[in-house]
Amino acid sequence: MQLQLLIDRMIDQAHEVDPGGTYSILVGNAPATELEWVRGKKVYRWCQVVQTRVVPNYAVVLAPSPDNLRNSDLVEFHGRILDGDVTRHTIRRGVGTGHLA
């Protein structure tokens, strides 16, 4: 799958979950597709772009800012570049959910 298309899907999903939230896009040091897409990007849409060795080259992570936690869960999005799969992972439970992680 195209890296940019996957990132667009992830940002759209994040916007549905937390319309006012801020996120950073984390990609590996050599993404599986479109390595050149990362070059020269500091921000894509309204998200900071970060390149790191921590993220595998076949994945991209949309990580929330800690202050996104308002009355809902703090959610991180993981995308698989090769097949376009997007999964959500709760990092911390929000105050409005009745539990704290």
What's this model, at a glance?
With about 100 residues, the chain is of the alpha+beta class.
**Cα separation of the termini:** 34 Å
Taking pLDDT < 50 over at least 5 consecutive residues as the criterion, the unreliable ranges are: 97-101
The tally of structural domains comes to: 1
Radius of gyration: 14 Å
Q: Approximately what portion of the residues adopt beta-strand conformation?
A: 25-35%
The general outline is globular
Quickly list its features.
6-stranded mixed sheet, globular, 2 helices, alpha+beta
Describe the fold and architecture.
The chain contains two helices and six strands; from the N terminus they run αβαβββββ. The chain is α+β, with helices and mostly antiparallel strands. It has one domain. Strands 2-3-1-4-5-6 form a six-stranded mixed sheet, covered by helices on one side. A hairpin with a 2-residue loop joins strand 2 and strand 3. It is globular.
Show the helix and strand layout:
Blueprint lengths: L2 H15 L5 E5 L7 H4 L4 E2 L2 E5 L7 E6 L9 E7 L5 E7 L9
Parallel strand pairs: 1-3
Antiparallel strand pairs: 1-4, 2-3, 4-5, 5-6
